[in-house]
Write a structure and sequence with these properties.
The complex is a heterodimer. Chain A is of the alpha+beta class. In chain A, about 65% of the residues lie in helices and about 10% in strands. A four-stranded antiparallel beta sheet of chain A has the order 2-3-1-4. The chains are: A alpha+beta, B alpha+beta.
């Protein structure tokens, strides 16, 4: 007989646990937000903030305090010195910010001169030199936000169309979102507001159009992104392009889990209409639980290997993915599915005798006063 | 039910064969052999983060080029007007850029405007006003279409010049491409000295020959008081013990000749002081021009100005025929060599600035490759062992298609000539996890159906059918996100997006199509009610 991680016929009442889960999620987001606010926003890497990075390796033993002391004397702006890998690697990441007219070559020269003077005889090499100018930094910030915005838009449209067979409503939402964003752009709103606006419009339209699955999925993925960003802030990690890539990937990944659960809800719903909604959802979550835990476990294993052995360059990317996999799995089970119960009015939980509502809804349901 | 098994097997074998054809050129030791000649040329490229090298994003100051062009247009306008017997005062460039031209003689307006319409279609009249002394002041600007065309030409010219310089410098497989927002991306694999690369690529190398005005006294120079048509420039001289001094020098503003006639330039050693210099040869037209200006300016000093700095200003003793000139200065051997390259390759049409620079040394690149391979192997081994233990025979099927998935993904990368980056390797690891997910979904479903009391064959059939929809649905979002990443990401991130999309598509093929063949073969050879190992 084969192994089972999750016993068949497991029946955990996730719906009953939902208020506890919502409170826990709220708490996690709150702690992350407090960390972000107290640190004055996320810590941007040079991709977004601009600056110079020199990854330096010394041949002889060198202490990080020593490197710091020597470089502090050079008055480089915004200097940060970090040890990389193990202490015996003698490898350091030196980061500075730059003004408009300072080139990476100038920074490199200053650092080299300081090392040649104060650490004479200790050979070193620059394994990596990166310089991002302020202009490129702000461009990359804009691009990252734009990518997040489009991801949310496409996903909302896809889920509404695919899961509620309401491409029309999805189309209306896309049009509404597009109009809203164009209006904001017309008002010359900064990009952060554009993305926030896009989010709020999407959530509002999903709610108005009663696109509950899309709303649930989007709430879950915003939850995942917020918790990951918050955790990164608590751990004092930097945000750069690869972290944004990780965030987008985990959006896709968490959604993957959510969709498997939704798929099952849809299937069960179609097969046994006599069950009230909370029962259907609970059953579906339990039926897919084994798969969810297995897949997430394997994905975690794979990314953990990347985290441990993938090297410094990819380390933070792997960390973001690890956090994302845990949070994404949690949110698919505890947030995305139960939220549908909360979003559906109480009297609609038990469907009427007719299995499917005969009313064909083309789009917006007229508001009842 | 298994009728089309043979057909499905054939498709799978064909796909594997095609994959091998595309993958083999990327394997070491194949290139150059007879086998390598039959196989396709495209192979997996390693990104700069793995291979080591320099990545630069350059901003081209197109506005400056437009301003320069406006200046030339102004001079042309004045000259053309003179040919038509129209008097136009020296045109001024206003911010914008716009051109201010003052016509002497209000009755000549029609003739002047006719000239503008006929020969200067790129200019349009913004404003026109009568001035005292029978003058008319015109403010002209470029038409948007001309401006656009000019920007395009400037950028094309800049790319061409940079490519020329890099080719002359000698870099294997450089990649130079235009980007939006007047930017140029340059990738130089294998180079590790960004300072020198930037010095060669970024130097405008605008060479001008100007006549020195020695009549201005030092006090006026200090106060910045020079006559019209003259300018104060920095003169770089070198002391006897090396080291550069900068002193002001007064030059006539209009260059008598520019570097456009240079056919060749090379570094030389001056015999009298063992200093490095750069000697230039001009083409026939340049030689003629140089002979004329030296003849017209005997006993005056001729300043050689490079990018706004004067390097030498020898006295012209006699007219110089033959088309040769020399720049001396306190150059090191490398500097002289690089300057010769830059002069040979031609000047940039506009100044460029380095907006972004990323240099990865070869040791770090190799370390990243090793770490990438190591973590991929460990992840794969963990998953393979788990699947075999957890699902038995079915797990081994999953492992076989997992291997196939990796092969197909790599073959896809090779077929598209895509670039493998460090995030790309991370993408492969994620793909491994996602490819297994498809199998887990199917197997969990089959187990469920078996528990419901279905016969093994029916359970497999139903499990595959039901899970397929869920797999396609869930993977669609991953593909959507990866496409967005590709659209907005930079180099390494794009590598990640490409491997992710390829891996997901291939995993759908391997998990749904190929693994089912194995299952069908396995089931068809057994009695209908025998238990399956899953």
């Amino acid at each position: 007989m084969s192994f089972h991680l999750i016993k068949p016929n497991t029946n955990i009442d996730f719906i009953k646990l939902r208020y506890f889960a919502f409170a826990l999620s709220g708490l996690m987001i709150l702690i992350g937000a407090i960390s972000l606010v107290s640190k004055g926003g996320p810590r941007y890497g040079i991709d977004f903030a601009g600056g110079v990075i020199l990854q330096t390796k010394f041949e002889a033993e060198t202490k990080v305090e020593n490197v710091k002391k020597i470089l502090e004397a050079t008055n480089l702006p915004g200097l940060v010195v970090q040890q990389l890998g193990k202490a015996k690697d003698n490898e350091f990441l030196i980061r500075t910010s730059i003004g408009d007219n300072v080139s990476s070559a100038a920074v490199q020269k200053t650092v080299s001169e300081a090392f040649d003077k104060d650490l004479a005889g200790n050979k070193y090499t620059f394994k990596r030199i990166e310089m991002v100018g302020p202009k490129v930094g702000s461009d990359l910030r804009g691009k990252a936000l734009e990518a997040l915005y489009y991801a949310i838009l496409l996903i909302a449209i896809y889920i509404s169309g695919r899961f509620e067979h309401r491409w029309m409503a999805a189309g209306i939402m896309a049009a509404g979102l597009f109009a809203g964003i164009t209006a904001l752009q017309y008002l010359n709103a900064p990009q952060v507001w554009l993305v926030l606006g896009a989010l709020l419009i999407t959530l509002g339209l999903c709610f108005l159009l009663k696109l509950n699955y899309a709303l649930g999925a989007i709430v879950a993925l915003i939850h995942d992104v917020l918790v990951t960003i918050g955790t990164f802030s608590i751990l004092n990690k930097e945000f750069d392009l690869t972290i944004i890539a990780a965030l987008l990937t985990l959006i896709g990944y968490s959604l993957n889990d959510t969709i498997i659960v939704y798929d099952r809800i849809r299937e069960t719903h179609a097969a046994r209409t006599e069950d009230p909604l909370p029962v259907v959802i609970n059953k579906s979550v339990n039926q897919t639980l084994s798969r969810t835990v297995l897949t997430s476990g394997l994905a975690f294993l794979a990314v953990f290997s990347l985290f441990l052995f993938g090297g410094d360059v990819i380390h933070d990317f792997a960390l973001a993915m690890l956090i994302g996999i845990i949070v994404g799995t949690y949110s698919s089970i505890y947030v995305a599915a139960p939220i549908i119960v909360s979003l559906t009015p109480e009297d609609a939980h038990t469907p009427p005798a007719a299995p499917v509502k005969p009313i064909k809804r083309g789009g917006v349901k007229p508001l009842e006063v | 039910m298994y009728r089309n098994l043979r057909w499905r097997l054939l498709v799978t074998l064909a796909v594997i064969l095609i994959a091998l054809v595309f993958l083999l050129p990327s394997a070491p030791g194949i290139k150059g052999t007879t086998l390598g000649k039959i196989l396709p040329d495209s192979a997996i490229n390693l990104g700069l983060d793995l291979k080591g090298g320099i990545h630069l994003t350059l901003g081209v100051d197109v506005d400056k080029a437009i301003e320069n062009n406006m200046g030339t247009l102004g001079q042309d306008l004045k000259a053309s007007a003179r040919e038509e017997n129209l008097a136009v005062l020296r045109p001024n460039i206003l911010p914008g850029p716009r051109l201010e031209a003052v016509l002497v003689g209000a009755d000549k307006q029609d003739a002047f405007e006719k000239l503008l319409a006929k020969s200067f279609a790129s200019l349009k009249i913004d404003a026109k006003e009568k001035q005292p002394e029978d003058r008319v002041r015109y403010v002209l600007s470029m038409t948007p279409a001309y401006k656009k065309e000019l920007s395009r030409l400037t950028l094309d010219q800049a790319v061409k010049t940079i490519r020329n310089r890099i080719d002359q410098f000698g870099v294997a497989e450089p990649d130079i491409r235009r980007q939006e927002g007047n930017r140029i991306q340059v990738q130089l694999p294998g180079l590790t000295d960004p300072e020198r690369a930037i010095a060669i690529i970024g130097k405008t190398a605008h060479l001008e020959f100007k006549i020195v005005d020695d009549s201005v006294d030092p006090a006026s120079i200090k106060a910045g008081l020079v006559g019209p048509g003259r300018e104060i420039t920095t003169m770089v001289t070198h002391g006897s013990k090396g080291g550069a001094n900068e002193t002001p020098i007064v030059l006539m503003k209009d260059a008598v000749m520019t570097g456009e006639y240079i056919t060749d330039a090379r570094a030389t050693i001056e015999s009298n002081n063992n200093q490095f210099a750069v000697s230039m040869n001009f083409n026939a037209r340049g030689a003629k021009v140089f002979e004329r200006i030296t003849e017209e300016n005997i006993k005056k000093r001729l300043a050689i100005v490079l990018d706004g700095k004067c390097y030498s200003a020898p006295v012209i003793q006699d007219k110089i025929p033959g088309g040769r000139a020399q720049i001396t200065g306190s150059f090191t051997q490398d500097e002289a060599r690089d300057l010769a390259i830059v002069l040979r390759a031609g000047a940039l049409p506009a100044p460029v600035s380095v907006l972004e620079q990323r240099t990865v040394g070869p040791t770090l690149g190799q370390e990243s490759i090793d770490a990438g391979i190591m973590s991929t192997l460990i992840a794969a081994v963990c998953i393979v062992v788990f699947m075999a233990v957890y699902y038995g025979f079915a797990g081994i099927f999953a492992n076989i298609v997992l291997l196939l998935n990796i092969v197909l993904t790599m073959a896809g990368l090779a077929a598209f000539g895509a670039t493998l980056t460090l995030p790309g390797i991370a993408g492969i690891i994620l793909t491994i996890a996602m490819a297994v997910d498809a199998n887990v979904l199917i197997y969990e479903r089959i187990r469920e159906e078996l528990r419901l009391g279905l016969k093994p064959a029916d359970a497999v059939h139903k499990g595959y059918d039901r899970a397929t929809l869920a797999i396609i649905d869930s993977n669609t979002t991953n593909v959507l996100v990866a496409i967005i990443l590709y659209q907005f990401g930079t180099g390494p991130i794009r590598g990640f997006a490409v491997t992710l999309v390829l891996g997901i598509l291939m995993s759908m093929f391997t998990a749904i199509f190929v693994s089912r063949i194995m299952f069908d073969l396995y089931i068809s050879k057994r009695p209908a009610n025998a238990a399956v190992s899953i």
